[in-house]
Amino acid sequence: MKLEKAAAQLEALGNPTRLNIYRLLVRAGDEGLPVGRIQEKLDIPASTLSHHCKRLIETGLVTQERQATTLICRANYPAMQGLIGYLADECCADATCSPVAKESVA
User: Fold this and answer.
1) Are the beta carbons of 105 and 67 closer than 8 angstroms?
2) Quick one: DSSP state of residue 32?
3) Per-domain residue ranges for the chain?
């Protein structure tokens, strides 16, 4: 993963509303959630939700799929794993870690 992509994804998750949306989608699993259900759970206007979803989609953290008249949002798990891996891959590369630190990264 490139530094710029990781920075964009972290920036997108740095907004409290987007982080809430993303956490809902991660919890929902592979089925994802309809946009209307996300809106209900977070009690935010549709235009606000649309704006935040767009940013998460642009960074590759979320995908959307239309099923008839329903728009389904899903967490992009490979992208999430890529970001987590990017953050943890070089843990303690330049220092000696305690056994606890090494276990938490593994």
Assistant:
1) no
2) -
3) 3-105
Q: Are 91 and 105 in contact (CB under 8 A)?
A: yes
Backbone φ, ψ for residue 25 (5° rounding): -70, -40
Calculate ∠ Cα 72-40-79, nearest 5°.
40
What's the whole-model pTM score?
Answer: 0.84
Residue 88 has pLDDT above 60, yes or no: yes
Enter the DSSP assignment of 2: -
Contact (Cβ atoms closer than 8 angstroms) between residue 88 and residue 105 = yes
Residues 2-29 have a mean pLDDT of 96
What does the alpha-carbon distance between residue 106 and residue 95 come to, in Å, rounded to a whole number?
16
Domain 3-105 belongs to what topology?
Arc Repressor Mutant, subunit A (1.10.10)
Tens digits of residue pLDDT in 51-61: 999 999 999 99
User: In the prediction, which pLDDT does 93 show?
Assistant: 76
